């Protein structure tokens, strides 16, 4: 049970990248969930409606969903940059 | 200068190990029973609560489109957001408190990841059989029976995941209407999307990612050790009693052979959902599910040795020092937690069904009437009706001398609405002399127990 064969180099690399992506997606998701909750607790999309708001703004559900994915995208960008910076660069060890 | 190369793909040392599929061996025992109970209670609550009705509407409904949260008899508005924040702080402190006492109880028994993984494992076991059968099935070549088994498992998983997603959306949109919409294929695009989204997350996390979520994605797993001390319950292998490990014949004296109680059967490793060997000591991957305790107790019973070679214990107890339950950490977490819970309950119970903001007009301090005998102050009032019905409000103002209000009239405020109105308050210029604090009250004509009062500053010339 304990004596597992050493993993092949390419599966090893793939697993690492896949997990990096999972961490980035997941941490962005968590941040987006918090941001959406806070944002729409204080802002009512209906109250922000005006002549210049787009058509999909008509329903709160749409704005909530678009807002969530917007925050997720921002979170993804931040997490991806963070991951890239943390794993590359000069190491002083 | 030294030739320093920047590695393009990180250093050779990976933070992660390649994942091998884990086939946890099924186990019966005290703690497995507890977890099964916990799964039934928690998932039972999850799948049933949206179907409960209270006061003629869904008992628990987070009605996002209408910005109202219904929780049994209570209605929460966006202005009550403080309560949600408060509740989250209580939840976090409760997690700290129970972690400090019992270790990773949350991970082992209550975390949705654990609970749903457990149900997905049941389904897998139901279709594909026990651990050996599953390993054999996966190793074997594709055949009609393998295809059938895999298809049956997928069908069970997918239906359960979709039902989970549907229930999830049912917390945010009325579930009876939602089920009608599913039945008549008239679901809206967003509802469809969120059902699929949450269903897919359940399917992926509980069916495939499983322990990898705990190992690589869970933030709690990374900081829970900060709540641990030497008196926290942890699941540990008793090295003193177990070592040196080794096989022996049943009924022979292990001590005479120079052996400890561990027979090295590796059952504790085979049952582990995260695939670790608890005998190597406390590890970050351990979610404290206690499956290894059940497995080891079983073996100890068979060998005629006392139970508890692997058990819940504290580090102090292992080192033969006394364990304390009440210690500063527990007292502080417990004290804060009780204070917050009591405060929360009291505040929610005393929550006013109407709220009133009074803003002074900033442009003019005060205005004298033409004859100079009376002085006016102008305010903007904001009335929020948090009840479920329309209310007719009357406004009163009290100072040291009689005040008159302009205009004097009733205001009708719809349920959940905020109503802004200008209010002019008038009194005699020099009675009393100078400024004073007045009380402005808004009271419902329909139900006089619904009222709110706010203090405001009334300005007047000193002489």
Task: Give structural notes.
- The complex is a heterodimer of chains A (93) and B (463).
- Helices cover 67% and strands 0% of the residues of chain A.
- Chain A is mostly helical.
- Chain A has a domain at 25-87.
- The longest helix of chain A is centred in the N-terminal third of the chain and has 34 residues, at 9-42.
- Chain B is α+β, with helices and mostly antiparallel strands.
- Chain B folds into 2 domains: 17-351, no CATH class; 354-458, Immunoglobulin-like (Sandwich).
- Helices cover 41% and strands 19% of the residues of chain B.
- Chain B has helices at 30-48, 81-102, 105-110, 112-128, 131-139, 144-170, 175-183, 189-209, 211-217, 219-223, 239-242, 267-270, 291-303, 315-318, 328-349; strands at 53-54, 57-58, 60-63, 68-71, 74-76, 234-237, 310-313, 354-360, 367-368, 374-385, 391-398, 404-406, 411-413, 418-428, 436-444, 451-458.
- Chain B starts with 29 loop residues before the first helix and ends in a 5-residue tail after the last strand.
- In chain B, 22% of the residues are buried.
- Classes of the chains: A mainly alpha (93), B alpha+beta (463).
- Chains A and B meet through α1 and α2 of A and α8 and α9 of B.
């Amino acid at each position: 049970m304990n004596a597992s064969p050493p993993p092949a180099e390419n599966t090893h690399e793939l697993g690492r990248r896949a997990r990096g992506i999972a961490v980035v997606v997941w941490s962005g998701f968590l941040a987006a969930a918090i941001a959406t909750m806070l944002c729409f607790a204080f802002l009512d999309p209906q109250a922000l409606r005006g002549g210049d708001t787009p058509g999909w703004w008509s329903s709160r559900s749409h704005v909530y969903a678009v807002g969530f994915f917007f925050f997720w995208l921002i979170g993804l960008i931040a997490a991806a940059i963070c991951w890239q910076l943390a794993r590359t660069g000069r190491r002083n060890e | 200068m030294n030739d320093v190369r920047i590695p393009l793909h990180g250093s050779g040392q990976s933070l992660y190990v390649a994942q091998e599929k884990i086939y946890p061996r099924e186990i019966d025992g005290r703690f497995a029973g507890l977890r099964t109970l916990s799964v039934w209670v928690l998932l039972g609550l999850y799948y049933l609560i949206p179907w409960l009705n209270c006061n003629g509407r869904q008992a628990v409904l987070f009605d996002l489109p209408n910005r109202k949260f219904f929780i049994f008899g209570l209605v929460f508005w966006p202005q009550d957001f403080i309560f949600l924040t408060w509740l989250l702080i209580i939840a976090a402190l409760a997690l700290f408190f129970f972690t400090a006492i019992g270790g990773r109880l949350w991970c082992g028994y209550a975390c949705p990841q654990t609970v749903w993984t457990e149900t997905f494992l049941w389904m897998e076991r139901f279709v594909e059989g026990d651990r050996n059968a599953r390993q054999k099935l996966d190793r074997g070549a594709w055949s009609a029976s393998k295809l059938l088994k895999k298809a049956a498992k997928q069908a069970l998983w997918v239906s359960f995941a979709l039902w989970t997603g549907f229930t999830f959306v049912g917390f945010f949109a009325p579930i009876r209407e939602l089920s009608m919409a599913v039945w008549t294929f008239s679901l809206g695009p967003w509802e469809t999307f969120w059902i699929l989204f949450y269903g897919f997350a359940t399917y992926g996390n509980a069916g495939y990612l499983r322990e990898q979520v705990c190992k690589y994605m869970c933030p709690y797993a990374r900081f829970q050790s900060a709540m641990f001390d030497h008196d926290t319950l942890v699941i540990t292998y008793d090295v003193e009693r177990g070592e040196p490990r080794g096989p022996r014949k049943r009924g022979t004296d292990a001590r005479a052979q120079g052996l400890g109680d561990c027979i090295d059967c590796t059952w504790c490793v085979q049952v582990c959902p995260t695939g670790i060997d608890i005998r190597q000591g406390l590890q970050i991957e351990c979610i404290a599910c206690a499956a290894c305790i059940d497995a080891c107790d079983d073996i100890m019973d068979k060998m005629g040795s006392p139970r508890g070679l692997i058990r819940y214990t504290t580090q102090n107890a292992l080192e033969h020092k006394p364990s304390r339950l009440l210690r500063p950490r527990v007292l502080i977490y417990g004290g804060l937690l009780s204070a917050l819970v009591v405060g929360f309950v009291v505040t929610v119970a005393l929550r006013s069904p109407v709220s009133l903001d009074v803003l002074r007009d900033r442009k003019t301090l005060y205005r004298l009437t033409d004859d100079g005998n009376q002085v006016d102050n102008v305010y903007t009032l904001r009335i929020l009706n948090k009840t479920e019905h329309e209310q007719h409000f009357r406004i009163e103002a009290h100072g040291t001398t009689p005040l008159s209000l302009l205009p004097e009239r009733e205001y009708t405020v719809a349920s959940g609405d905020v109503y802004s109105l200008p209010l002019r308050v008038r009194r005699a210029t020099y009675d009393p002399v100078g400024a004073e604090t007045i009380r402005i009250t808004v009271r419902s004509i329909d139900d006089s127990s619904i009222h709110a009062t706010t203090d405001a500053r009334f300005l007047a010339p000193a002489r």
